[in-house]
Design a protein that fits this description.
Elements: E1 7-11, H1 15-27, E2 31-35, H2 38-47, E3 52-56, H3 64-73, E4 80-84, H4 89-98, E5 102-105, H5 110-128, E6 140-142, E7 145-148, E8 153-156, E9 159-161, H6 165-175, E10 182-183, H7 184-192, H8 200-214, E11 224-227, E12 231-234
Parallel strand pairs: 1-2, 1-3, 3-4, 4-5
Antiparallel strand pairs: 6-7, 7-8, 8-9, 10-12, 11-12
Helix pairs in contact: 6-7, 6-8
Amino acid sequence: MTDTLAKILVADDEPDLRALLQRYLSDQGYTVRTVDGAGPLDVLLARERFDVLVLDVMMPGEDGLAICRRLRAQGETIPILMLTARGDPVDRIVGLEMGADDYLPKPFNPRELLARIQAMVRRQRMLGAHAGPQGVHERLAFGDFVLLPAERRLEKAGADMALTTGEFALLLALAQNPQRPLGRDRLLALAYGPDHTATDRSIDVQIMRLRKLVEADPAQPRHIRTVWGVGYVFVPDGAAPAGGRQP
């Protein structure tokens, strides 16, 4: 399955950049809509479904970080790629903590942006493939939660919990490998595919976000534990992993 029918929403206050991305991504086969701020962005998200949101950080009024945080708080799960003119790595981590799936500093090569969008679209469709004949159908229960791969849902006590595409992919990769310590590179490949653009630091931020969702005490996780010097291990029943690994 190709990603040529994917719909991309670009939110940036620079008219020249919006026009450039409109032309370039349209030439690559995408359907592209552009907006210059939070107001028209909200209108389009309410009316249409998009596969990826390309969101500029430094916009007047409600900036990209605030928009990202608000959308996630509202339960919006669209994959978000943040754009920023800031070069400070701390800003990248803040964006990921707010719920972004990826981060690209300006100025950037349009081909790199394209590659990241392609990876995000493939990730979504890879998750959708779990509902197919070769996919995983069984319910994966842990603690108060039930992960439903075929329906791409996480339930807590029967109520749906909002997960971004990246968060769901990461949780699914962990849940499908219970009690098995996974290094960061292996976990990235399982969750996002071999052509992922994420980094070790971004996987740590994603893990932190997941812990806030599924752990009673994220500082003392029972299900998603750190294996020092290796990576992470998923413990469905919350019992101590073999070997006495620390959380």
